[in-house]
Structure formats: C-alpha cells, structure tokens
Amino acid sequence: MKDWQPDISKGSAPVYERLVTALEGDVRDGRLAPGDRLPPQRDLAHRLSLSVGTVSRAYVEAERRGFISSHVGRGSFVADRARPHAVPHDTGPLDMAHNVPPLDPAERWIGEGLSRVRQRADLGTAVNYAPPEGLASIREAGASWLKRRHGVTRATADRVIQCNGGQHGLALAFAALARPGDTILCEAATYPGIRTLADHAGYRLRGVAMDARGIDPEALARCARGTGARVLVIIPTLQNPTTITLDAARRAEIIEVARAHDLMIVEDDAYRVFADAGAADCFSDLAPERTLMVAGISKAVAPGLRLGFLLPPDNEDIRDRLLLGIRAFGYSPPSLGGLVFSQWEQDGTADRIADDVIVESEARTQLASSILGEAMAVPGAGRSLHVWMPMPMLEAERLSARALRASIALTPPDGPIVDAVAPSGVRLCLGGLRSRDALERALNDIAGMLRTAGGSAARGLV
C-alpha cells in the first residue's frame, strides 16, 4: 500500500488525530485490508507535507487503538480487525445452553467504539449520577433503535427509560405493575429468567396454554377470570423457548382479551431485530394504553454493555413507579455503556454489528435445520439465536443427559416450564459457540443421539 493517500483535509482536530481518523475510516470501509503494509513514516510525511513526528504520533495512536501493528525492521501493517484481541476457543463443554449472539461482530468493533467515545463532548457526564430515566443522549439513541430496528412508531426520547439490560427491565416492569404474591400470567413455557425473577420477588406465575400459533386467547381469558391476574408477560417474536412468532391476527385476539379483563401487557421484545420483513406490529403500538415494552441490545449488539430500554404506556403513575424502582434498586442507570451504544447508534456501528449478527444467525439457523431436519420446529423467522426440538419430557431429559456426557451443555428441559400444559422439548442455543465448525460438530452429535434413541416423538408444535 505504498500509494495510500489518506484524506486529512476535513475537521479541526490536530493533524495527527485527523490522520488516525482517516486510517480508521479506510480500514472500516475496506480501502485498507488486514495485512496491508502502510507507507514508512518518512515517506508518508513527505507525501502529506507533514513532519515525521506528526506521522509517528499518528501511527503510535493507531497502534494503541488496535488498528495497526508495528514490527521493527519490517514496518507497520493493518491489524486483523476480525481478531483484534485474543479470544477463547471452544474449549470444555460446548455451550448450547446460553442464549447469546455470536460475539465476533461486537469484538471486531469495540476498540474503535471506545476510541470514538473518548472524543464525545458529553463523556464527562459518565462520572456522575445520571437522572433515573438515563441521560438524554442515551435515551435518544434508544428511541432511534426501537423505532428503526424494532419498528415501534411511538418510541421517542421523552417516553424511553434506560435500564440495565432486559432482565433488569423485566424486574422494573413487574415491580411497577404487581406486588409480591400477585399472579402474573405468561406462556406455559417461557424464558427461564422470568421464572427466576418470580421466585426471587415472590410473584405467582401462571402458565397459559399454547398452540402452534403461540399463547391461546381462550386459555388466556380463562386464566384471567380464574386468577384475577392483572399482568401478562409475553414474548411475541421468536418466543423463548419455542421460537413461535405471533401473527397479526393472534396479537389482535390477545389484545381483545387483555382489554376485556383489564390486563397490562409486559412485552418482552428481545428478539424483534431477527423478525422477518413485514412482521406484525409490536403490542406497544397496537395497544399503547396497556403495554409496557422491555427491549435491549443484548441479543443483537453486545450483552456486555448491559443496556436496555423501557417504553411504558402514557401513564404517569406507571412511569413514576418505574423511576422509583430505578432509584430503589440502583439509584441511576450506568452511563458509560450507554454512551458507547449512543456513539454506535450515531455512526452506524450498531447497525453494522446487528447486521453481521443477523447474517451469522441465519447461517447457523439454516445449518441447524439441515442437520436436525424434522426434529427441529420451524422457527418463526428465517434466523434465530435458538431453535426448539419438541419431544416428551422424558426424552428431553435423556437427550440432555447424553449431551452432557458428550461435553455439550444444553438448557435443562424443565428450565422454561411454568405449567403442566406447557409444550416440552429441548432448546438449542446457536450463538454461544465461537466457530460454526464447532456448532456443526455439536449439532451432528445431537442428531446422532436422536437417531440412536429412535428420534423425537412429539411433532405437535411447529
């Protein structure tokens, strides 16, 4: 790359900073590829009419940020952005129990994201307590994300409340809408974190029967009448664990029941970014008077930022209770991770990471389908972080035990089960393994176990 000519004409930053920014931009946009040799410092200084010291300072800063690597006697080279830091390989038990996204995309961009945050004018706000609803810049980023990637038309910065990830958001939502001892309705098989939260806080979970399209509206009405519950928590897109996505008609039926029985809806929208084009509208837009949305960036961007957002109904009493909960549990949401996301939302990095995660998740979902065949339920979208294999509970427990003996960790089959009417099966999480090769080996091992056991018997839930 001896002919590389960076553009440093724009901006008012010091020249060395502009040179670093140009280098970063050319790496990000593909004009510089991993392994490309950069011009010697003296040659580049002559070409740009700069001092050697200025170019040297820029190279040192670029290396500090992880964009280049220098070798005495050989020169400076563009670093491999796909692996900016050493990452662990798939060692020990193969993790198919934790529902996380493939982490390579976020790891690829974290260094640049942090370097850009240090240039923000509002960075100093991160050292002080934030307002309970979060900093304005973080809420603006959250509203933009919910509107663009979740399709929520009513998401605005003045409505959004920052929280510390989706689990924290669910805890705040339940505390604002129910008291210990109250019954909260949910799908009969649900996200295990909801069970953990109910056990900890003393809520009574009542599982509602499901069919192939999701939660059954008639069963929901019966449960509401029989329990007097006033809260329903639901995962409408790629339901965890079954991967069912509610269609528009089923959402309308659920809303009709909720209005008839005065149910507040807690919409756990963790997987919305993976929905197919043309997916049905969110409950937050369909029933804004009674829906409290919980959404985060953990599944599509980076779980380690611990950042989520609440979108309550336009009800000041509920909003005040949410903010009181934030004060009680943590005083204020942390700002640094939120500022990283705010920067990523502004400069497009969040979209690049999410798009890469979606592409990789689609490839992994197709891989699982090709290996597991009819043993796997068809997901409610073309890509998913988890897939579902319906089978009787006894078979599920045997498969889980056999997998563990083969060093493959699966979600315990009883982990999602809330009620005896729940569909039973095994959830396989596809994002926890670093490499697709390791995932393929694990899936083939599981398929072999199914063949040895005679296959999965229950095909009732698709």
Order of helices and strands: HHHEEEHHEHEHEEEHEHEHEEHHHEHEEH
Largest sheet, if any? 7 strands, mixed
How large is the share of residues in beta strands?
5-15%
Discrete helix count: 15
Shape: globular
Helix residue percentage: 40-55%
Please, how many domains?
3
Rg over alpha carbons: 25 Å
**So, the CATH homologous superfamily of the largest domain?**
Type I PLP-dependent aspartate aminotransferase-like (Major domain)
Enumerate the strands of the largest sheet in spatial order, edge to edge or round the barrel: 4-12-11-10-9-5-6
Q: How many strand segments?
A: 15
What structural class should be given to the helix and strand makeup?
alpha/beta
Contiguous low-pLDDT stretches (5 residues minimum) are 82-87, 455-462
> Which CATH architecture of the largest domain is right?
3-Layer(aba) Sandwich
> Termini separation (Å)?
54 Å
By CATH reckoning, the class of the largest domain would read: Alpha Beta
The name of the CATH topology of the largest domain is Aspartate Aminotransferase, domain 2
GO molecular function: DNA binding; DNA-binding transcription factor activity; pyridoxal phosphate binding; transaminase activity
Organism: Tsuneonella suprasediminis
Keywords: Aminotransferase, DNA-binding, Pyridoxal phosphate, Transcription, Transcription regulation, Transferase
InterPro entries: Aminotransferase_I/II_large, HTH_trans_reg/aminotransferase, PyrdxlP-dep_Trfase, PyrdxlP-dep_Trfase_major, PyrdxlP-dep_Trfase_small, Tscrpt_reg_HTH_GntR, WH-like_DNA-bd_sf, WH_DNA-bd_sf
